[in-house]
UniProtKB/TrEMBL annotation:
<dbReference type="Pfam" id="PF19275">
    <property type="entry name" value="HflX_C"/>
</dbReference>
<dbReference type="InterPro" id="IPR027417">
    <property type="entry name" value="P-loop_NTPase"/>
</dbReference>
<dbReference type="InterPro" id="IPR032305">
    <property type="entry name" value="GTP-bd_M"/>
</dbReference>
<feature type="binding site">
    <location>
        <begin position="262"/>
        <end position="265"/>
    </location>
    <ligand>
        <name>GTP</name>
    </ligand>
</feature>
<keyword id="KW-0479">Metal-binding</keyword>
<dbReference type="InterPro" id="IPR025121">
    <property type="entry name" value="GTPase_HflX_N"/>
</dbReference>
<keyword id="KW-0963">Cytoplasm</keyword>
<feature type="binding site">
    <location>
        <begin position="335"/>
        <end position="338"/>
    </location>
    <ligand>
        <name>GTP</name>
    </ligand>
</feature>
<dbReference type="InterPro" id="IPR045498">
    <property type="entry name" value="HflX_C"/>
</dbReference>
<feature type="binding site">
    <location>
        <position position="242"/>
    </location>
    <ligand>
        <name>Mg(2+)</name>
    </ligand>
</feature>
<keyword id="KW-0342">GTP-binding</keyword>
<keyword id="KW-0547">Nucleotide-binding</keyword>
<comment type="function">
    <text>GTPase that associates with the 50S ribosomal subunit and may have a role during protein synthesis or ribosome biogenesis.</text>
</comment>
<keyword id="KW-0812">Transmembrane</keyword>
<dbReference type="InterPro" id="IPR016496">
    <property type="entry name" value="GTPase_HflX"/>
</dbReference>
<dbReference type="Pfam" id="PF16360">
    <property type="entry name" value="GTP-bdg_M"/>
</dbReference>
<keyword id="KW-0460">Magnesium</keyword>
Length: 443
């Protein structure tokens, strides 16, 4: 039987969350089902609905008409009526027919996991790009479900006067209008992506390494972002609190400056419409020199969440968005160590750093780990530059770590640690200067 609460919130906001579960055979599946149900309840609560009914329903087989078994539907109908539920969230992907049949059987609105996540994204997107992406995903989702919205309407009449034959149906008209809007949205999104590309190119001309935060939703990415940058990005104990990428510059212990990027949180079974629509948002991850994978180490399902994040990143690699070496750029950040019920020794290596973003524990070690990772990917070069070439000398200070400098009467001997890409840019930008002298051997 479903579990219920005694909440007395008005019926207009009452919701039920139902998780159809097909894997009841092993002990870990029970734990996984409970964690998944908790996540679904959190998602539902995050859009202002009050969950007064929740349950895991074991499926022996998927029913084509309703997904759930007939007995489960009847039991759920009685529980929904008893608690005055007006919205039932099915934490699974429903076909349009299944959604329509469940609404008829239960006598209330039914939304599936995809619709729920789309509603959350629609409420949270703030930037132009985020808004366009969410609208595009919504329209692509709605287009497949128009049949359930317009079955009660008759044909419209086409043509003029008495000569016009039967026109297109209302569903065809709406499908055409949605199709036209999708084409326009994709055009606008492409323009936004081109603009982002120009911004990215501008950053490359004055290049700073990019450090991207990724992780499961609500893992604490925005809290960490704020702690490292002093910014005020919205950080709440709420799923999908951040949807639009945010960037700030920070200074590492070595004095090197990097750009820190906060990105949208990942989630299991992300709707396919959103994977496509948020492709541009994830481009910041693809461009990153370092990927900080922030994990909620206190979450009971932390290992499964890690697998979900890696699954998305692997999919990006498969689609050509990430190069095959992305794993070598990952530092795992084990966040929320202060919430561990039983303190235990956590690994602390170059690629794993335990922290508490809220309490500030471990942040200096994390900054040093970022610094060390960037340093390991750098090369050391030495130059003898004319003393009056202040622009070239300043460029090396801005883009590298000066290890040694010796000022002579006419020339400056300077040894600097640079990213390989910056060394190449220096060679291109000051080609004519370097052509007049021999570059000293690398240290």
């Amino acid at each position: 039987m479903p579990t219920t609460s005694t909440d007395t919130t008005p019926a207009a906001t009452r919701a039920a969350v139902i998780l159809p579960w097909e894997r009841p055979d092993r002990d870990q599946d029970v734990r996984a089902a409970e964690a998944r149900l908790d996540e679904a309840v959190g998602l539902t609560s995050s859009i202002g609905l009050v969950v007064v009914l929740s349950a895991v329903l074991l499926l022996r087989a998927r029913r084509p008409a309703t997904l759930l078994g007939s007995g489960q539907v009847e039991s759920l109908k009685a529980a929904v009526a008893d608690k005055g539920v007006t919205v039932v969230v099915i934490d699974a992907r429903l076909s349009p027919g299944q959604q329509r049949n469940l609404e008829t059987a239960l006598g209330c609105k039914v939304i599936d996991r995809t619709g729920l996540i789309l509603d959350i994204f629609g409420a949270r997107a703030a930037t132009r790009e985020g808004t366009l992406q969410v609208e595009l995903a919504h329209l692509e989702y709605q287009r497949s479900r128009l049949v359930r919205l317009w079955t009660h309407l008759e044909r419209q009449r086409g043509g003029f006067g008495f000569l016009g034959g039967p026109g297109e149906t209302q569903i065809e008209a709406d499908r055409r209008m949605i199709g036209d809007r999708i084409v326009r949205l994709k055009r606008e999104l492409e323009q936004v992506r081109r603009t982002r590309g120009l911004h990215r190119s501008a950053r490359k001309r004055v290049p700073f390494p990019v450090v991207a935060l990724v992780g499961y939703t609500n893992a604490g990415k925005s809290t960490l972002f704020n702690a490292l940058t002093g910014a005020s990005v919205m950080a709440r104990d709420q799923l999908f609190a951040t949807l639009d990428p945010t960037m700030r510059g920070i200074e590492l212990p070595s004095g090197r400056r990097v750009i820190l990027s906060d990105t949208v949180g990942f989630i299991s079974e992300l709707p396919t419409e959103l994977i496509a629509a948020f492709r541009a948002t994830l481009e910041e991850v693809a461009e990153a020199d370092i990927i900080l994978h922030v994990r909620d180490i206190a979450h009971p399902d932390s290992s499964a969440q890690r697998s979900d994040v890696h699954s998305v990143l692997t999919g990006m690699e498969r689609d050509g968005m990430l190069d095959a070496e992305w794993r070598s750029r990952v530092i795992e950040v084990l966040n929320k160590v202060d919430l561990l019920a039983e303190p235990r020794t956590l690994p602390h290596r170059d690629d794993i750093v335990p922290i508490s973003a809220m309490a500030g524990d471990g942040l200096p070690e994390l900054m040093e780990a970022i610094d060390a990772r960037l340093t390991s990917a750098m090369v050391v070069a030495s130059y003898r530059l004319p003393i009056h070439e202040g622009g070239a000398i300043a460029w090396l200070y801005d883009h590298g770590e000066v290890l040694e400098r010796d000022d002579g009467d006419e020339r400056v001997s300077i040894t600097v640690r640079l990213r390989d890409a910056d060394k190449s840019r220096f060679a291109v930008q000051f080609r004519s200067l370097l052509a007049t002298m021999e570059e000293a051997p690398e240290a």
